[in-house]
Amino acid sequence: MGDNTFAKLVNASTRNLEITDGSNIAVIGGGPAGSFFSYFAIDFARIIDLNINIDIIEPKYFDKAGPTGCNHCGGIISETLVQNLSAEGIVLPSRVIRRGIESYTIHLETGSAVIETPLNEQRIASVFRGLGPKGEENSNFESFDGYLLSLCKEKGINLINARVKELERHEDGIVVKCTGVPDKKYDLVVGSVGLNPGALSLFKNINPSYIIPKTTKTHICEFYMADTDIDKYFGNSMHVFLLNLPNIKFGALIPKSNYVTMVLLGDQIDSKVVDSFLGSKEVKGCFPKNVELKTLMHCHCFPAINIEGAKSAYDDRIILIGDSATSKLYKNGIGAAYITSKAAARTAIFQGISKNDFQNHYQKICKKLETDNNIGKFIFGVTSFIQKSELLKKGLHATILDEQNKINDKRRLSSILWDTFTGSAPYSSILQRGLDPRVGASFIWNTIKQTFT
Ligand SMILES: Cc1cc2nc3c(=O)[nH]c(=O)nc-3n(C[C@H](O)[C@H](O)[C@H](O)COP(=O)(O)OP(=O)(O)OC[C@H]3O[C@@H](n4cnc5c(N)ncnc54)[C@H](O)[C@@H]3O)c2cc1C
Fold first, then answer.
1. pTM of the shown model
2. 191 lines ligand 1 (CB under 6 A)
């Protein structure tokens, strides 16, 4: 296509860049971001008496066990997200929650400590994004992603089970092509395809200034265990490891119904890094004695995670949300998907669907998340530093133990760690609390005491 023809098409397509009665919206990807966008867009449209059609296009089957319904995730629904969702009228039913998390157990080479939820309430949920690993076919549980999609269907949103293969910009809309489904032209196309490189490149083809998010490799694996053993060895506690092992910034064991999900985050996690984690006495100590951990392993993968947000994640008639745009560094990615999706839906329905509309009303939300992530990088830099020093870890351990005997608002370091591990608060708030001289004083005092023990 010549430059002139392309310019004409772009000029023509900038007319009528708003959602009106009868507008068609394609949401590509039915993970949390796609569902949240659709849920809010249809509600916002109803507020201003607009009748719109939304198609969510998603190839996975979230009602099937195994890889076909898996969206590779630790499955922790943060406190903040549980609260935000319930304020939106979305209360997670018990058939979706595999376990309510009541505490965190932090493991260091110097010992372990349990940190209870700050308000002693059970508000963090562990879920499976799909139905769970193979073998879960007959369970009575429902998947988290499937549940969100069912809420969308109840609102009249159409679910198309297909994979998008091509996007084509036209004068008056964008044509979406999938195998096995007739091509269809949409007024707005929403990209909620996570970090799938092939799908992201479809958006780059029609929005060349889009720069895809930077990622690194992580690890997830599922250990199958009897629920009675999970109760005995893990309880309702998420086990977090701050060990001096190369590449690992954060390791966690998350108890669910019949599984314990292991998550390793850091820099380019590979099999060697995984083996070093599994071989540590702190990790082995969480499981029944004399059990070879690899025999409990049911499935495992090395999915990508965002470490830097996308650039220009919008154009006329195009908006990218969730992981495809920007996320929260290492934590609460589903919570970040909620934030970007709602902001994108608000912009599309109330402001318009031009590049300018998204730049003026959506971009600032992504920018705020990215600024917070930069603070997060600093906080993880500090935890990595502590991870490498036995003395500092002893001081950290002593401070946490000391704080557990105090009333809630005096458990300053514990609440900072709680929010860092759960992703329940913005990194800016964590940093602000970390700079409280009383936190530093208690940590330094406990560390000095350790030098004499
Ligand atoms: C190891 C690890 C652990 C994590 N743990 C947590 C956690 O405990 N809690 C938390 O909140 N976050 C966690 N996250 C982050 C979280 O998984 C993501 O932030 C979240 O899934 C983003 O949602 P999304 O809807 O943007 O993308 P996704 O959940 O990736 O959904 C994208 C959807 O798009 C679909 N898709 C892809 N290509 C196409 C195509 N061509 N056509 C149609 N559909 C397509 C996919 O099938 C998928 O369903 C974790 C991430 C990793 C890597």
1. 0.94
2. no
Q: Where are the domains of the chain?
A: 3-62+144-214+308-374, 68-142+219-302, 389-451
Q: How far is the CA of 72 from the centre of ligand 1 (A)?
A: 7
C-alpha distance from residue 432 to each of 85, 254, 402, 443 (Å): 26, 28, 22, 16
Length of the chain: 453
Give the distance (Å) from ligand 1 centre to CA of residue 277: 24
Mutate to test the pocket of ligand 1, among 39, 57, 71, 144 (most ligand atoms within 8 A of CB): 71
Instruction: Determine the Cα–Cα distance for residues 94 and 435; give it in Å rounded to an integer.
Output: 39
Which of 208, 193, 217, 238 minimizes the C-alpha distance to 34? 193
pLDDT, tens digit only, all 453 positions of the chain:
445 554 444 544 455 899 999 999 999 999 999 999 999 999 999 999 999 999 999 999 999 999 999 999 999 998 889 999 999 999 999 999 999 998 899 999 989 999 877 665 557 899 999 999 988 887 889 999 999 999 999 999 999 999 999 999 998 999 999 989 999 999 999 999 999 999 999 999 999 999 999 999 999 999 999 999 999 999 999 999 999 999 998 899 999 989 999 999 998 899 999 999 999 999 999 999 988 898 998 899 999 999 999 999 999 999 999 999 999 999 899 999 999 999 999 999 999 999 999 999 999 999 999 999 999 999 999 998 998 899 999 999 999 988 887 776 788 998 898 888 888 899 999 999 999 999 999 999 999 988 876
Give the three-state DSSP class for 308: strand
Ligand 1 centroid–CA 40 distance in Å is 19
Within 223-362, where are the H helices?
227-233, 271-278, 281-284, 293-296, 333-346, 355-361
What's the fold here for domain 3-62+144-214+308-374? FAD/NAD(P)-binding domain (3.50.50)
State which fold the 68-142+219-302 domain adopts: D-Amino Acid Oxidase; Chain A, domain 2 (3.30.9)
